[in-house]
Amino acid sequence: MKELVEMLAKHLVNHPDQVEVKETQGDTASVIELRVAVEDLGRIIGKQGRTAKSIRTLVNAAASRLNRKVVLEIIEDK
Known about the structure:
Elements: H1 2-12, E1 20-25, E2 29-35, H2 41-45, H3 50-64, E3 69-75
Parallel strand pairs: 2-3
Antiparallel strand pairs: 1-2
């Protein structure tokens, strides 16, 4: 799942070298943390959160094939 999120994020942003993805796995669920450059945050979230929702939908569809749950967190650095 980490590779999927990383690939999607790198193709959406202007600074692909600043994309960081960290995955924490539990027994049946995983938490994926996505960090991007401050300028690219709007590109990842999209208008009214549509892009973020689409990324979450794709990741959950891939995870359901493995009988897992995935939570995608977009981390906003200050």
